[in-house]
Every structure is written in structure tokens, then in C-alpha cells.
Specification:
2 domains; two-stranded antiparallel sheet; 11 strands; about 20% strand
């Protein structure tokens, strides 16, 4: 009974700690769920994965957009601008999590290239650029794209947004922008929603949150139990196994260190001496008693 109660107590303690951790994350991010598992390699920067960028199998905190202003790529690359030099997950600008056309299928986690804002005069403004009250948008980004053996800068030409919102792109998707209307034929088809409709400019209400800190590799466990395990970089599996070994070894190491510290503590040493002295005196008394008999 005592051993069974010990296991129950440990399980309750572990459950309580997990509940506290999740509650802290929810309070910190303002989102539910407070983190998401990355399921594709569309944001990957290195074939082997790397800490600092977003790889398949990573866990990423979801910061509510009410708590984090979205800084776009063009704002972060505007020379002398307010956000000049700002980077997130390996490149300028924030990475956002959004629902395609506000639908209910798996959210997309891609970088916000620019934001289109309605001008009171009827045109479009793009913060972080010189574009103000324009009828269509033409802009060249400082993003190199491979094409026919060479590299060129990502460019949109005469793009007429359907509505205000964000233009987005996966870092690992070459020059393909998520919104098909902003792509040229050579850039790729873009994305479509669960109904087969082309993805439009991402409205603010379609944004679930902004990608915060990453916890590398841990989400690979979920992908390993699904059909997306092939998306996880090979190096992430070995790093996940090594991390698990270290985490399992920490309690045993801590227990050994704690025992050694306790044994060398002055109070423990003094108590040990007193016990030994007491044992010696008791043995002497017993020996003397036998001799008297």
C-alpha cells in the first residue's frame, strides 16, 4: 500500500507541475494552445536543421498578436527605419501563424513580407516602403531566389490586393509567395485553402499569433507517430535522443551530487561523530556489564 501511494503521489506531482507549466505558458503568450508543432520544412534554413530557425519537429510558442506588434520584412530592412535590423528566426521580420483565408485547416507559419494598409484616399499604403496611396504594388525584396542557374531578388509587380492584410512566404520556398496573385509564373503556384481557393492577403483576424521562442526537436515525437516523419531533418532525431538521455540522467546525477554534498556537510559530519561516540560508549557499558557478571 505504501509503495502504491508513493507512485500515486509522484504521478500527481508530475501532473501538477505540467499543469503549472502550461498555465504559465498560456499567461505568457496569451494564446491557446500556447505552442504549435512545426509539420513541414517550408521555413527550414539548413538541410540538417539548426537552432534559431524553424524546422519540422520544433515546438514554437504562439504569441498573441495583441501582445506582439507584427514587424514585416520590409519594415525590418528599411534603412534607418524604426525596426531596421530586427530579426526573428534567422531572417528580418516576424513569422506569423495564420489560417488560410480564415478557414479551419492546418494553420500556416510563414514570414510576413509586407502589410497592405488601406489609404483614406482609396489606394494602398505599405509601411516600411515608399509606397503610399498606390493603385497596385510593385516592390523588390532583399531576398535572393535561385532561377535558371542564377540568383535574382524576389519581386512583385503590379499586384492588386483584394483587401488589406499581410503578404507571406516560407523561408525555404524559394521565391514562391503564399498568395498566388502576387506570384509571377516562374515563382510558383502559391497556396490554396481547404476548398481549393487561392490564398488571399492574410487579414488581421486570420492571424492566430506571432512565432515566439522555439523548443527544438521535441515535436518530432508527434511527427514520428504520423505521416510527416519524413519532414524532420535526420540530425534532429539524434539530437532528440541525446536530449532525452541527458534529461533522464539529470535526476540520477543530481541525487548522487546531493548525497555527496550532504555527507560532507559539517552538520552531517558532526552528527556522524556523535552517533559513533554514542555507539562506542554503549559498547563500553555493555562490556563492563558483562565483566561484572
Amino acid at each position: 500500500m505504501g509503495e502504491a501511494w508513493s507512485w500515486i503521489r509522484e504521478a500527481l506531482l508530475a501532473g501538477g507541475l505540467i499543469a503549472v507549466l502550461i498555465s504559465v505558458l498560456v499567461l505568457m503568450t496569451g494564446s491557446w494552445p500556447p505552442m504549435v508543432v512545426i509539420e513541414s520544412n517550408s521555413m527550414q534554413h539548413d538541410a540538417n536543421g539548426e537552432v534559431g530557425s524553424i524546422d519540422a519537429g520544433d515546438l514554437v510558442l504562439v504569441m498573441a498578436d495583441e501582445r506582439k506588434d507584427i514587424i514585416t520584412f520590409v519594415e525590418a530592412t528599411e534603412i534607418g527605419g524604426e525596426y531596421d535590423g530586427y530579426e526573428s528566426h534567422g531572417m528580418p521580420g516576424d513569422v506569423i501563424i495564420y489560417q488560410k483565408n480564415g478557414g479551419s485547416d492546418t494553420p500556416v507559419i510563414h514570414r510576413a513580407l509586407l502589410e497592405v494598409v488601406e489609404n483614406p484616399s482609396g489606394g494602398w499604403d505599405v509601411p516600411g516602403t515608399t509606397l503610399q496611396n498606390v493603385t497596385s504594388i510593385t516592390w523588390t525584396f532583399e531576398i535572393l531566389c535561385p532561377y535558371h542557374g542564377g540568383d535574382y531578388n524576389l519581386k512583385i509587380e503590379d499586384w492588386d490586393p483584394v483587401h488589406a492584410g499581410y503578404l507571406t512566404k516560407g523561408d525555404n520556398n524559394d521565391c514562391m509567395i503564399d498568395q498566388p496573385a502576387a506570384n509571377t509564373q516562374s515563382q510558383g503556384p502559391g497556396l490554396s485553402d481547404e476548398n481549393g481557393n487561392p490564398v488571399q492577403t492574410t487579414k488581421g483576424e486570420w492571424v492566430i499569433g506571432v512565432a515566439g521562442a522555439e523548443i527544438p526537436w521535441v515535436g518530432s515525437i508527434k511527427l514520428g507517430l504520423s505521416d510527416n516523419s519524413q519532414s524532420v531533418p535526420d540530425a534532429s532525431w539524434s539530437k532528440l535522443i541525446l536530449t532525452a538521455i541527458v534529461l533522464l540522467a539529470i535526476p540520477a546525477i543530481w541525487e548522487r551530487v546531493a548525497d555527496r554534498v550532504m555527507q560532507t556537510a559539517p552538520e552531517v559530519a558532526q552528527d556522524q561523530l556523535e552517533r559513533e561516540s554514542s555507539d562506542l560508549l554503549r559498547d563500553d557499558d555493555q562490556q563492563q556489564s558483562h565483566e561484572e557478571e
